[in-house]
Amino acid sequence: MSKKETKAVRIQVTKTKQKEHSTPLFITSSFTFDTQEEMRAAFADETEANIYSRFSNPNVREFEEKMCALEGAEDGFATASGMAAIFASIITFLGKGDHLLSASSVFGATHTIITKYFPKWGIEHSYFDINKPETIEKLIKKNTKMIFVETPTNPGLDIIDLELIGKVAKKHKVLLNVDNCFATPVLQQPAGYGADLVTHSATKFIDGQGRVMGGVVVGRKELIKEIRLFCRATGPALSPFNAWVLSKSLETLDVRMERHSKNALKLAEWLEFREDVELVKYPYLKGHPQFKIAKKQMSAGGGIVSFTLKGGLKAGKRFLDSLKMASLTANLGDTRTIATHPASTTHAKLTEEERQAVGITPGLVRISVGLEHADDIIADIGQALDKSKK
Predict the structure, then answer these.
(1) pLDDT tens for residues 176-187?
(2) pTM of the predicted protein model
(3) Which domain does 104 fall in, by range?
């Protein structure tokens, strides 16, 4: 199996005596051994064996191996949520006196961890301006242990040059950790640009149907070993059932992302001609500030479109309340189109100054473009925009 899309469909970690075609569910808290010596060897890591589902499980392992195949990574560890993956991927390697350098535009909960909780443990941080990549190197300190970025960013859809930042991280011998949630491994593989770790909220496009929660970290084998030990002790384990669902979801990720990206580009191009829309952001729009970078490191633009209404907050509220088909929910990456107002929801914990610094204006709307027919999506957005002006 040479192609990653084939591996996402065909990798099967365990097959029982029943010779099932589809991987069965292994809903069990623990696994048995034939002898005490067999059990001792497993606990001593002398043999590979399932011991306890907080440590490993056949369903979880299958999901991890598929993600590694898609990302081009050596190993991976799955967690109960995307935020558990992000937290584990950072805190495993940073402690008192260390410094984290992060992109200024990150998910709201990630920002909270960095600014509220890390300082309690003596972990310093600095933010670099995503639109000024030349400042990254200047912000690296002697105690900098990791650079953390997400690209495309949430919700501004800015693109960070992975090749550039990968070279900076390598030069200064610091870990590069990339949140690849929006692009997914189908559209972008950060490991190919020097990322040591790649994190995902599998709850989003990887599941793709709004059913289960999950997260995963993939990367260099020696790093994942440390993350696995941390998570075994602290317990953010992915459930076997959720892993089973996510593993099946990966079998259709390639074709889903193709449709998401196709629909999103159509919507973005249509929005550009609306007089009531001040700004449209989508990685594959030619007017995007980092269009050339997006084309270089992404095979398509993804399923998220952000735009700013001229009427500000009031127009944004009227727009959201006027939608008939699109859902108002906290998730994204669903088969169904979803609309969100970041300033009052996902990034509400940021100060007004912090939101403005990363382009989250009161009139900003984030659309997670679904798999419905593009004409129906545009029709619903259009009628809601018309009503938002009244």
Answers:
(1) 999 999 999 999
(2) 0.94
(3) 4-252
